[in-house]
Task: structure prediction
Amino acid sequence: MHGRTRRGWKVLGYRRAAARFCRLHAYAKIYVMKWSIGVDVVSIGRIEQLASRHAERFFKHVYTPAEVEYCLKKKKTSSLHFAARFAAKEALVKAIGTGFRDGIGFREIETIHDPLGKPMLVLYGKALEHARLQGFSCFELSITHDPLVAIAVVLACS
Result:
């Protein structure tokens, strides 16, 4: 192979590199990984308002019992944690590309924590079914919040 070296890497012309790639991979099975990102921002005030007006009904409709228990343990900042979990659910359905339709409910998406405190998503029922239909099998979640908003980013991959 001929080419100029730039910082230790071989630099090939576009055509030569493409031809070499095709020769190398003509008989190899190439796996393509599918990625999708979902992002959601939720106002803490909006969640506080919903929780104060319709507390019992709102919690039962949107959160799993484990999520409610976790958030209520954080007495001073419970609304921040509720908003972050709401944002995570919205970001996930954006990442899998379905939204909350076709039977997907809020309670079919649960945010849990690993032993080190990293947030993780667990899917049940129709949410899991739709994610698998779209080809997604793993999800990465990042959550942050401040006194005004909570933000969640979900990376879905095959």
